[in-house]
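Morning. Coffee machine broken again, so started the prediction first thing and wrote up yesterday's gels while waiting. Chain of 220 residues, entered below exactly as on the submission form.
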Amino acid sequence: MADPIRILLADDHAIFRAGLRALIELEDDVVLVGEAPDGDAAVDLALELRPDVIVMDLSMPGTNGLEATRRIAALDIGVHILVLTVHAEEEYLVPVVDAGASGYLTKSSADTDLMEAIRVVARGEVYLPARATTLLLKQYRTNEDDADHGQGLRDLSAREREVLALTAEGFSSSEIGKKLYISPKTVDTYRSRIMQKLGLNHRSELVRFALRVGLLKELE
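Came back before lunch.
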């Protein structure tokens, strides 16, 4: 049996944390290892506990969740961050992705989607609801500057572009493999090669790159 996914909750509302704790305790493959009432505590506990996933609120006193996400991502300690917030995607989605988060979920969807989102980001994948992906595409296409990214895109083969685009759309390795008629292991090999060519370290950076250069246009 695989080790359970280790989770850190970062939210300033104790009652809400208690609700999330109750959801987590119902599952066999996840375990809560800590709770943080603010961004500074989230950063400290990330270093101390090295959880697999941090469920991060954005609006917290002191260091907010966005800045905490940015600081934790910069530590490069293998922690995946799932932002869980009351804020609608339109306002915060792009800053959250740019900060290094691996997922975005509104609190109104927590009771039905939280566990799936946690499992997705724990696998090193990106969790974005379909609506969020559409918003990202729209905002990046409005503001994108391809000049700094075009050469990197030209260095990729056609198959690597397909894998990158499907990754940005949120598909898992097994799902991409089925679409392209290759094994999940081959998908992972392609993804590692793409990251090496582009000089990227995290899967969330792959998503940002694909969105900035408008790569998803090829699959529409």
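The chain has two domains: 5-130, 144-219. Going to sketch it on the whiteboard this afternoon.
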